Amino acid sequence: MQGFGELEAAVMRQLWAAGEPVTVRQVHTALTRERDLAYTTVLTVMDKLHRKGWLRREPRGRAHVYHAVTTREEHGAGLMREALTDSGDREQTLLHFLGQMTLDEAAALRSALNTYERKITGS
């Protein structure tokens, strides 16, 4: 798993925000509010994301609609897993990560750990 390029990330953010299948035209319209992009550029990026397995597409009328294969949260979790695996010393990596957290993030982590522990212990 790897991170996305700048335009790939912008496209994925649009798909995740939409929460439903979208056309290239819809993504192009949203992205051109922020920057000047050709329709064919967005089409090419979305086709590449489809070929890489990040997007699914299905025909709808004369166009295709696209939707993300994973959620934004699943993607983020995969990136964190990859970083942890590649880090060498997992404990030190986690300690450095914790040192960068806000109190709210630490509380969210504590809550997630509690939920996970209840799930795996069945309590």
From TrEMBL:
Record has Transcription as a keyword: yes
Domain of life: Bacteria
Sorted UniProt keywords: DNA-binding, Transcription, Transcription regulation
A Pfam family the protein falls into: Penicillinase_R
InterPro entries for this protein: BlaI_family (IPR005650), WH-like_DNA-bd_sf (IPR036388), WH_DNA-bd_sf (IPR036390)
Gene3D superfamilies membership: 6.10.140.850, Winged helix-like DNA-binding domain superfamily/Winged helix DNA-binding domain
Keyword Zinc: no
Regions crossing the membrane: none
Record-stated family: Belongs to the BlaI transcriptional regulatory family.
Name of this protein: BlaI/MecI/CopY family transcriptional regulator
